Amino acid sequence: MSIDTTDLEILKLLQNDASLTNKEISNRLHKSVAAIHERIRRLYEQGYIKKTVALLNRKKINCNLIAYIHVLLNDHAAGTLSAFEEEVVKFPEVMECYQMTGTFDFLLRVAIADMDAYQDFYRKKMAALPNITTVQSFFVMSETKSDTAYPL
């Protein structure tokens, strides 16, 4: 199913502030509340909107250190790749996991309290996973832009 410009405007508004009510959206787009409600319901049903979340201030909840981790596996069989994915997504510190092209097989974004927490995560969780050849970590020094909204 395709979406129209009104749907795109709804998606833009919700990406920037998911707490907007149907009434607030309807006022901004000059549509009825019922029409907005129906469109949002349809956007969920069609999978344009996966879920609604609250974005937290990571420093307020003691996730002061962000690490990007490249992982190279020693075996590229489908079962090995799937097994790695199944295990790594269980770690609450792992915020994102992507299978990549290029030199490394996976890229992880990990949020932890500090370097001690990272060392604990690395030794007790990452190092315990089978078939890992190389783990290369990069630590965020400063955050210039962090956006969750896709350009529409």
CATH architecture classification name of the largest domain: 2-Layer Sandwich
Broad shape: elongated
* Poorly predicted segments: none
CATH superfamily of the largest domain: Lrp/AsnC effector binding domain/regulation of amino acid metabolism (RAM) domain
**What is the H/E string?**
HHHEHEEHE
Radius of gyration computed on alpha carbons: 20 Å
Multimeric state: single chain
User: How many separate helices?
Assistant: 5
CATH topology of the largest domain: Alpha-Beta Plaits
Sheet bearing the most strands, described? 4 strands, antiparallel
Query: Percent of residues in helical segments?
Result: 25-40%
Overall pLDDT confidence: 96
- The proportion of residues in beta strands is 15-25%
How many structural domains are formed by the residues? Answer: 2
The spatial strand order of the largest sheet comes to 2-3-1-4
Structural class: alpha+beta
Number of strands: 4
Spatial gap, N to C terminus = 17 Å
- The CATH class of the largest domain turns out to be Alpha Beta
